[in-house]
Amino acid sequence: MEIDLSEYMGAYIDGARENLDMMDKKLLELEQNPSNIEAVGEIFRAAHTLKGMSATMGFEKIAHLTHEMENLLDKLRNNQLAVTPPVIDLIFETFDILRTLVEDSINQTESTVDLSEISGKLSAMANGQVPAAAAPAAVQAPPPASNVSRNPAAAASASNANISEFGLSDLELSGLHEAKDSGKHVILLKVSLVADCLLKGPRVFMVMRAIEECQAEITKSLPDVKDLENEKFDRSFKMLLISAQSSQDVKGAIEGISEIESVETTELSAADFSEGPTPAPISAPQPVYAPPAPSAPPAAVAPPPPPQPVAVAPAPQPVYAPQAATPVSVPQAPAQPAIAQPTPPPPQAVQQQAAEESEEEEEKEVIGFTQLITFMLAGETYALEITQIETIINLTNITRVPKAPSHIDGVINLRGEIIPVINTRRRLKLSEGEKSPLNQIIILSFEEEKVKAGFLVDSVKEVIRMPETAIEPPTRVSESVDIEYLRGVGKIDNSIIILLNAHRIVFDNPKEE
Q: Taking the CA atoms of the chain, what radius of gyration do you get in angstroms?
């Protein structure tokens, strides 16, 4: 199932140049009329399409730069930032670099283009800061003494929040302040998984989906989000969030996820991230769309001693230990009057054997579970075994593959790997549905065949544990679904869950119509 992308280079060249021409045309319109938000939307869509095409073909520089460009354009089209001359100049500068990178990808050349500078400008502008080259000369950094000063109450709050370990940059701190000023919540989140969690990646995915549903975004994560997705962490992780909802709302949304041992949220105030352990003068960020509000310098207060770390004892882990059977007293039989008989032994051995059998049954019940990821397809609940699943991603750009089987929607580029995506509805011959932002792709790995495949589903629901005894042999769930594609049918709380046979879905040749 390896895909040779060189045969799609012609289509990429045509598409890339078409989108660049569209961006060029709409940029000129925007320069003549900065209030033309429709032109901003067209530029955004062209950049988004170019990003997806480039990521699929493996042109990471173009994908990275168009992603940074999207962040700025998204705020412009949603009126979160004003379209000003410095903004238009920066978009033109980005466009020129993009054209160079696209020509490099076409001609297989490598220009000495440093993306760090233009990426920094785009990120700063998206966060409401005028880039250094366009900043007014009159803006001066506040005196160092003002930065060092801080009252003890603020110091105690920062100590409790303990966000210094995130190593926030000046730009990230500025973003947190801007969020607080706009009335949003800045939240420190800590999530701990249960000790026997089998696959941590799906739990991380569900936490991030709950965060998204709470209209929150992740500013920074420990470990990094990519490490979390790849399960490169122990049992817990921390995140700094900017949320439209309160910390209690975020906590409630995450606590409902299975295999989560604890969720801790702390609502941060501006004082919690005003200064770090080694403060330095920082120029006040200048919003693009509003003049900076004057502020009086705070009174100088001697800095408190650095907070001492507080050791927190880990929560005790539950250990399965079946209780020993309680001995039962048995009345002695009356002695026989005629012939002396030996006293029968007390039924200790019988009781011990019964206790051992009870323990064995309980142990079978503990290990006799199958862990599943459930998801929706055409209004029904389906499931796959979690041991087969590598990760779950939101719907992304899928590139069509000529002459591919009808149930293959195309391929995606996932961290440098080209992975085919199966339209699961079409494979099972269910009713077709329109793609929506709620759709997700479940990535499965088949170790023996050295193959990975994506299953396109309507939406992922949750991780569950189902007793093997609750799984019945597969039956026909519809006239069209091939029973060979089913592993069985499970029942939990009067709900029917259809278990799929992933191996057959991926590797069996489709039957001819």
A: 30
Asked if residue 144 has a cis previous peptide bond (ω within 30° of 0), the answer is no
Q: What gap in Å lies between CA 150 and CA 274, rounded to an integer?
A: 9
Instruction: Specify which residues 459 forms β-bridges with.
Output: 376
Sequence-ordered list of residues with C-beta below 8 angstroms from that of 108, at least 6 positions apart, any chain:
none
Instruction: Compute CA 379 distance to the chain's CA centroid, rounded to the nearest angstrom.
Output: 25
In which element (H, E) is residue 432 found?
none
- Please answer whether residues 499 and 482 qualify as being in contact, where contact means their C-beta atoms are separated by less than 8 angstroms: no
3-state secondary structure of 225: helix
Backbone angles phi, psi at 308, to 5 degrees: -90, 135
463 pairs with which residues across the strands? 373
The whole-angstrom separation of Cα 309 and Cα 155 is 13
Contact 218, 210 (CB under 8 A): no
Distance separating alpha carbons of residues 203 and 184, to the nearest angstrom: 26
Task: Give the C-alpha separation, 497 to 295, whole Å.
Answer: 60
Predicted pLDDT at 472 = 84
For residue 480 the two structure tokens come to: 């069209």
Q: How far is CA 427 from the centre of its chain?
A: 27
Q: Is residue 442 a contact partner of residue 373, using CB atoms and an 8 Å limit?
A: yes
Q: Is 259 left (phi over 0), alpha (psi -120 to 50) or beta?
A: left
Alpha carbons 310 and 142: distance in angstroms, whole number: 33
Beta-bridge partner residues of 465: 371
Cα end-to-end distance, the chain, whole Å = 23
Q: In what order do the strands lie in the sheet with 236-243?
A: 216-222, 236-243, 185-193, 260-268
User: Would you call 395 helix, strand, or coil by DSSP?
Assistant: coil
Give the closest residue to 390 by CA, choosing from 437, 438, 439, 446: 446
| Cis peptide bond upstream of 322, omega within 30 | no
Angle ∠(251,257,261) on CA atoms, nearest 5: 75
43 CB-side CA count, 13 A: 30
pTM listed for this prediction: 0.39
Task: Give per-residue pLDDT as tens, 342-361.
Answer: 555 555 655 666 666 666 55
Q: Which of 195-199, 429-433, 455-459, 492-496 has the highest mean pLDDT?
A: 455-459
Q: Mind listing the pLDDT tens digit for each residue in 220-258?
A: 899 988 888 778 888 899 999 999 999 999 998 898 787
365 phi, psi to nearest 5 deg: -65, -35
